[in-house]
Structures are given as C-alpha cells and as structure tokens.
C-alpha cells in the first residue's frame, strides 16, 4: 500500500513529492522523466527527518538530472510539434476537425487547441497501432484481446497475461517505424512474457533493426513526454 504526504523543498528551490509505501524496504529517490518531478519514497517506519536528510545529501545530483530534462512545451497556435516524426505547425483554420496539410496541422478555430491536438494524436495512434499489431500477431500465430491507449509516463507499451495490449498515444509523434517497433515489442510478449533472449529473438524476427528504433526512443522519448496538451486554449 502506498500513500502520499505533503511534499517539501530542498536546496531552497527543488520541490519533493513524498510517498510512503508499506512495501518499500529502503528510501528511494527518482526524477520522473515527463514532469521532472522529484519523488521520495519512504518505508512506513522511516521518519520525515531521515527522508529530508537523504534528499538533501543528493541535491547536487538532483540539479544535474533536472538540468538535462527537456523544458515542457505547450501546445498552442504556432507551436511546432512532431507528428509521425515530421515537424508541423499548429495552425487555426476554418476546418471541422484537425488534419495535416503540408507542414501544417490545421485545427478548428475557437476550440481548445490542446484538447483538439491530443484527440488527433490519439486517433492517429490507434489507426497506426491496430494494423501494426494485427500484422505482427499474424506473423507469430498469436492473437490479442484488445488494444487501449493511455498517456503513460513510465512505458511506451505493455502486454498483460490475458493478451491485452496498451500503448502510449504519444507514439503518434514518433516516426512510424518507431511506432511499429513498439507494436512488435508488445506483440512479442504474447509469446514470451519476459525480456529473455527468446523474447528479443522474436522481436528481431518481427523487426530486424529494432535496436535502432529502440535507441531513437531512448534518445528522443523525453521530448515527446515534455509536450503539454490540456488546460490551454491557444
């Protein structure tokens, strides 16, 4: 069981989110890759004083990590964001729904631009992921029960033991080959629910150059997660 307490500041300007967990055996400190939020997890019996001292001892490390985090980018009119690996400019227009024309992503004037763009990306991700998963599953002689999309922060996709696939809809911003790799990765889990040598061999069978696409996500994934879509009206 995990609970959340009030946070605190360290170093005078670094907010720390405090969580307590009955399953934690030691104090852990991490920085979320999407928001750059510092999270301290404490075992139930650990004191706040101990936790604060633990974080204070790592202030220099926190500053280095936070300095490498991408600056959040807000979706607004005129913003340039990637869609399937290509930069497009969000442009208000007399259209009923969002669509790409050339290097512009046209969005309906007068509607909340962040919500519209997020909905467009979700639709695009679904349109790309369903046939990709169907294709890879057929090659393996496997089947899956459902595909769902979420705005996940810790993973680009997942596969449950009962064959349910989940993906981040932000994959619509990545090159199509990268999205296809993630689809293949999760479909490979239908055959191997681990990251064993057999799993990676299956992934390589589906996408021979998967390591290149995996590397792209490692290098550029933080930039995709840095975009903010909601609460903006352009």
TrEMBL record:
Pfam families: YgjP-like. Residues 26-220 form the YgjP-like metallopeptidase domain. InterPro entries: UTP_pyrophosphatase-like (IPR053136), YgjP-like_metallopeptidase (IPR002725). PANTHER family: UNCHARACTERIZED PROTEIN YGJP, UTP PYROPHOSPHATASE. This is M48 family metallopeptidase. The lineage of its organism: Bacteria, Pseudomonadati, Pseudomonadota, Alphaproteobacteria, Rhodobacterales.
């Amino acid at each position: 069981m995990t609970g959340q307490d009030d946070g605190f500041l360290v170093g005078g300007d670094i907010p720390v989110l405090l969580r307590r967990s009955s399953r934690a055996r030691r104090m852990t400190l991490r920085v979320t890759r999407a928001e750059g939020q510092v999270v301290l997890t404490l075992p139930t019996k650990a004191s706040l004083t101990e936790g604060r001292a633990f974080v204070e001892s790592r202030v220099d490390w926190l500053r280095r990590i936070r300095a490498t985090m991408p600056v959040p980018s807000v979706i607004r009119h005129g913003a340039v964001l990637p869609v399937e690996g290509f930069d497009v400019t969000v442009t208000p227009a007399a259209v009923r729904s969002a669509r790409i024309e050339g290097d512009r992503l046209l969005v309906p004037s007068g509607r909340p631009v962040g919500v519209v763009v997020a909905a467009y990306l979700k639709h695009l991700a679904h349109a790309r992921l369903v046939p990709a998963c169907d294709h890879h599953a057929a090659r393996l002689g496997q089947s899956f029960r459902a595909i769902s999309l979420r705005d996940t922060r810790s993973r680009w996709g997942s596969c449950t033991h009962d064959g349910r696939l989940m993906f981040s809809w932000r994959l619509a911003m990545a090159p199509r080959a990268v999205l296809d790799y993630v689809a293949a990765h999760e479909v490979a889990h239908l055959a191997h629910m681990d990251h064993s040598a057999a799993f990676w061999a299956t992934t390589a069978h589906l996408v021979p150059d998967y390591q290149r696409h995996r590397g792209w996500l490692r290098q550029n994934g933080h930039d995709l997660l840095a975009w903010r879509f909601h609460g903006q009206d352009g």
